[in-house]
Every structure is written in C-alpha cells, then in structure tokens.
Amino acid sequence: MSLAWQGAAVPTLYIASAVFFIMGLKLLCRVRSALRGTSFLGVGFVLALIGLGIEAAGMPPRLALVGVGIGVLLAAFSTLGKEGARPLLASTGGLAATLVAVVAFMSDETWPLGSALAVAGGPRGAALGLAVLAGAGSLLFGLLAARGPASRGAGQPAAVALAASASGLATGLVGFGLGNPIVVTVGGLVAAAGFALAAIVGKALGRPPLDVVFGTGHKRGAGDDYENVKACGAEETAMVLETARKVVLVPGYGMAVAQAQHALGEIAKLLAARGATVSYAIHPAAGLIPGHMNILLDEAKVPASQLLECDAANAELRDADVALVVGANDIVNPAARDDAQSAVYGMPLVDVAQAGTVFVIKRSLRPGAAGVPNRLFEHPNTNMVFGDAKKVLQAIGVELKAQKKAAA
Amino acid sequence: MDTGLILWTVMMFVLAGFVGHHVIHGVPTLLHTPLMSATNAISAISVVGAIVVAGSEYEAVRTILGVTAVAAAMCNVVGGFLITERMLKMFKGGGPGPQGGGH
C-alpha cells in the first residue's frame, strides 16, 4: 500500500475533513446547532472517503461496494429494530478496526502472524497489535452496554461512550499502522471525546464511569442515598420551558439565600411574553418565615395575582407542562402525603410531580430543614439542575433570550 | 515506515486527542446520548483502512475479512448517523407544547 500523500489534493481533503469533524463535534455540543453538527460530521466523512479514493484503493470497487451494501442494510435493519440492538451498533466500529488491523498484519510478509503482540514487530506491528486489543475492548463495552448491568438506565451512554472511545483508540492505532493521517486524527478525536463523555456521564451520576458501566460501587444507603437521579443544565431547562404553555414556579428558602427573586421574575416575564401562563406556588412554610416568598417576589415586582396558595397551585399543576422548583426541598416532598413515617408527613405539599416535567434547581441533593430524603428527586419526570439558584436562573434567561432571537 | 512519519502520526494523534477532549467539555446532559452516538459513528473512519488493506491480490481469507470490515464500518457509520438524527429530531418535534423557536 502506498503511504505517499498524493500531491496537494489528498492532504487538502484530509485537512478539510478534520476541520469538519471538529466543527461538527463542537456544534453537536449545543442543542440548537446539534443537527447541523451531524451534517458537518457527514461532510467530514465524505471528504475523507474522497481523499482515500484518490490516494489508494486496494480493494476492487465491486468488492468494496458489496461490503458497503451489506453494512448499510445491517444498519437499516438494526436501527429499525429493537432498541436493545442499538448499543451493539457501537461495537461494529471496533470490530471493523480490529479486522483491519488483522488483515494489515497478515499482509505484512516480514512479520508472521504469530508475532501479533510482539513489540519486536516494530512500532507498526505493535500499533496493529494494540489496535486488535483496543478493538476487542470496544466490543466488550458495546456488549456491556447492550446486555450488562448498565443496559438499563443512565449508565448505558457511559458504556457506549467507552465503546466509542476504545474503537477510536483502535482506529487511531490502525491509522498509525497504515500511516493514514485522517484515520489517526479521527481516531484521536473519538478516543478522547468518548472518554471525556464517559467521564461526564459518570460525574453526572456521581460515580466513576467504570462503576457505572459494571454496576459496581452501587449501594443504596439508609434512605439518604438517591437512585436514578437525572441532572441537566440551564440550556436544556430553557429548551423545555420555551415549549411550555403552562409553567408553575415554586420558590423556596434557596431562592432567598441566593437572592434569585429578580432572576426568577425575569424568567416569568420572558415566558409570559411567549404566551405561556405563569404562576408562582407559595407554600405556607416556604422560606424562613411565612410570607418570606411574598416579600421577595414583591421586591422583584411580581404581580400579586400570579401568586397562588398551596391548593390553587396544586390545581394549576394538574395540567401544567413544567414545574420549576427554585431552591425548595421539604415543601415539595411527596413524603408529606405518602409516607406516614416521615418527619414531613401531614405537612401541606406543593405536588409538583403532577406537572409534565419538573426541574429542581438546587445546589446539591442535601436534605432540607426537615432532614429527610426527597423521593421527588428520583421521580422519572424530575430533572435536577445543580447550582446556585441565581446563576442557574440567569443562565436560563440568557438561553431563553437567545431562543427568542433565533425565532425572530 | 520512517521515524519522521511515525513521529508526525503520533503528534497528530495526541493533538487530536486534546481537541476531542476540549470540544466535549460542557456538553449538556440532554446531548450525551446523541453525541456519543455520533462520536461512535465517525470512528468507523477505519472503513478507509479496510478498503486500503483488503486488496485484490490477497487470498480469500483476507478478502473476506476485509469485506466484513467494510460492512461493519459502514453499518457503524450509517446506523450511528441514523440514530443520532432521529434522537435530535425527537428533541425538536417532541415536548408538550407547540413547536418551539428555531425556525
């Protein structure tokens, strides 16, 4: 095979391809531009393939087309099929890299197949041997994602991300073995991005990625430990808020501490300007003293007509699209109604779980004044938005304004 | 394979790794799944390698392995892109309210 970079055309194509890959990943990291990001990745891929076509095509086109055809059919079949088949798809990249490494090995008369793992085979042989190992690792993570302990629940993206990372590593090593710059570049990109992503997912779940994937290090404590808590950011919250027609805001002590009433009032205004019905649920025990919320919201010039007492708020929540809880804990704890053993049992409850989606802005999962766990945080409709209430609300406000601009 | 090319390639891999790590930084939870799916899809760039190595002058074993590699890589990339697009469209069209901004 030729390692020569043919003229200027091929390097140019490869560089353009790498730029499209990087831009594509960057765009994919923002909700608004994500779809454009996939198009960029697609363009990058096609450019790389054209570069390859010019450089060297070892395989007869007819055979290559057979492979392409089979692959496309398999892809269509597996994406239309059951959900369970999809993580397996993640391992096909690793499988491909492994096979390429094996073939490349066999094609080198100077190094017999038996020296597969021998460093004596030189850097190229070592790279290909490691590629086989990394590819196998990718297959393992893919299988774990499909069938392992991570297959149910939030750990699956972490397992798939590790599968992608390993297949990126394998790809990079194969590219090294073949001396092909674009294969190396994409391999490096994917290996690092996949690993970073697995770390981010693990962090969101509060556990190291490998624990998440293998289902280890997972214990449920005496009741102050949470399971399946979903966390999200301001951007996501804003995206759901912007499509909501009815929003109930539930301020608590945390809003007072963060002095977030102005930021909250601002968001209410933005939502109302979009035509949404916005109201505030005022729990009698919210804040330090009765009326604490009323005082703060009045300071933020929130019209008193938007403030609802507990019962009225619960009626409103029944058909609300979004409940946004700002620094509250005990007042939205369903144990007040459901758990006779709980310290908060019998207290009035703002029953936010009735809303289509619940966002809880809170600094952590720490218990409130009552010192009891809150099962609302693991409710399937609940998303935790961790952070300082004021900062998070301001970030949501920025996103909402950006959306408005984009829509105009 | 000369030392110069080896070093160039290693440098490319390392730099690409840093770029990949930084690009992912700060991605919202909502996008974890589509992002990992897209990332995984493009790792199938090894289809390039597959086509390069599975040349015609080889015996059946290598040809079959090569074609399988091409098929696996194409399955990975096409399937990955299909799933990613579908997930992202779900965000656009879904949700309780009317279609949000953007257009």
Salient structural properties:
heterodimer, A: 408 residues, alpha/beta, Rossmann fold, six-stranded parallel beta sheet, 15 helices, 7% strand, elongated, B: 103 residues, mainly alpha, disordered C terminus
Layout: helices, strands, pairs:
The complex is a heterodimer of chains A (408) and B (103).
Chain A: H1 9-28, H2 34-55, H3 61-80, H4 86-106, H5 122-147, H6 155-178, H7 181-204, H8 209-214, H9 234-243, E1 246-251, H10 253-258, H11 261-273, E2 277-281, H12 292-299, E3 307-308, H13 310-317, E4 322-326, H14 335-338, E5 357-362, E6 382-386, H15 389-407
Helix pairs in contact in A: 1-2, 1-7, 4-5, 4-6, 5-6, 6-7, 9-15, 11-15
Chain B: H1 3-24, H2 32-42, H3 46-53, H4 60-93
Provide a quick synopsis of the model:
The complex is a heterodimer of chains A (408) and B (103). With 408 residues, chain A is an alpha/beta fold. Chain A has helices at residues 9-28, 34-55, 61-80, 86-106, 122-147, 155-178, 181-204, 209-214, 234-243, 253-258, 261-273, 292-299, 310-317, 335-338, 389-407; strands at residues 246-251, 277-281, 307-308, 322-326, 357-362, 382-386.
Could you characterize the architecture of this molecule?
The complex is a heterodimer of chains A (408) and B (103). Chain A is an alpha/beta fold and 408 residues long. Chain A has 2 domains: 156 residues, no CATH class; 174 residues, TPP-binding domain (Rossmann fold). Helices cover 57% and strands 7% of the residues of chain A. Chain A is built from 15 helices and 6 strands. Chain A has a 6-stranded parallel beta sheet. In chain A, helix 4 packs parallel to helix 6 and helix 5 packs antiparallel against helix 6. Chain A is elongated and about 80 Å long. Chain A starts with 8 loop residues before the first helix and ends with a helix. About 5% of the residues of chain A have low confidence. Chain B is flat and about 50 Å long. Chain B has a domain of 58 residues. Chain B contains 4 helices and no strands. The C terminus of chain B is likely disordered. By secondary structure, chain B is mainly alpha-helical. The chains are: A alpha/beta (408), B mainly alpha (103). The interface between A and B is large, with 117 and 89 residues.
